[in-house]
Amino acid sequence: MFDDVNLVSCAGLVPVMALAEQAGLSELIAERVSLASARVASAGVNPAAKLTSIIAGMAAGADCIDDLGVIRSGGMPRLFTGVYAPATLGQFLREFTHGHTSQLAAVARTHLVNLAQRTDLLPGIEEKAFIDIDSLLRPVYGHAKQGASFGHTKIAGRQVLRKGLSPLATAISTIKAAPVVSVIRLRAGKAGSGRGADSMVTEAINTARAAGASGDILVRGDSAFGSSAVVNACLKAQVQFSLVLVKNPAVNRAMATITEDQWTPVNYPGAVTDPDTGELISDAQVAETTYTAFASTKHPVTARLVVRRVRDRTKLEELFPVWRHHPFFTNSDEPTTAADITHRRHAIIETVFADLIDGPLGHMPSGLFSANSAWAICAVMTHNLLRAAGTLSSPKHAVARGATLRRQIVTVPARIARPQRRPTLHLPEHWPWAQQWTAFWRNVFAPATGPPATA
Hints:
single chain, four-stranded mixed sheet
């Protein structure tokens, strides 16, 4: 029977939300988010408690508003105060406007900076930081979903039109650290991928520097972001860029100036060394030339045009090698092959999207655009919080997927007891990740509070 008020299913929320509070979550929300002009007066009150309830529910695995009820089950109200019902949280989200989502986005950026200062979230950021920008299309199916429209997406390698909403996100990572999300902005499905990218990049650069990026910063993106606006935003902020350019006649002419002896094999997975000559045998080669981009605009930029060419395996009976060329524009100071490998690691942002889709962004739960925008911001705040929790657990958890962190660290069952009126959590004996969970608890609460007892 479901009748035990002393059982909790997500004991890991105790240290997770304590870590969020140590990074100033409630204080930041109280200072910066105000819904004084709410259509329903009671819906806009106490935004700090309501937003932390949403983030706690997301950390426990909620991907829709109804799922937020998990934080009210069993003994959860005895662990946390100010826990709200899903209907109340849904009504609260529906009171958001564009201005309110901008306030919440500012909270998300500052909270990320605080988490980076509280934990080793971004090791090596003082040496070099990477900022990756990309967009995706989240499909929606409701007829009355605000902002939903048909946009281009790729499924199984094919470009298709699909109805949905299009978040644009930037991620910060280092050589040693898994990516965290600095900014996310929800847009209509038909919005161009690069729309608003220059301001997003500027915000991400400012966030990275506030988080400790005192060295080089490299902004990476695909062809949707290889625009004059994004490049000049990078130059204005005095950071490096590595952006794919759309092939046009000017780019093709620049690539044609590269001679055959300039191409260098790249050490990709699958490349082998010739046993006789010692040279690298690879299906990919790179070369570079100097190129002036955006020559017809007021702000032309001259930098390196690095070109990667790959053998076209669709041509099985070729008389001579057929290559596919992929150019990108960069002002980095790395050697050609290293610059190419670094640029291709831009795909790390796809792991962030996979994490979000496997979690809170599994759905866009409201019919109102601003409510979905607030939901997306809460989703990235949860992602960053879980990433910080992983760094306090173990090196393995520091780079683990969100689903792994929820399963091993957050959704740990426990029983509440009060021996001598002292609240105690009794956790399962032989929990496979007890050592990591205990390390997380101690790193959050030590030395004031000892770890819970095992049952």
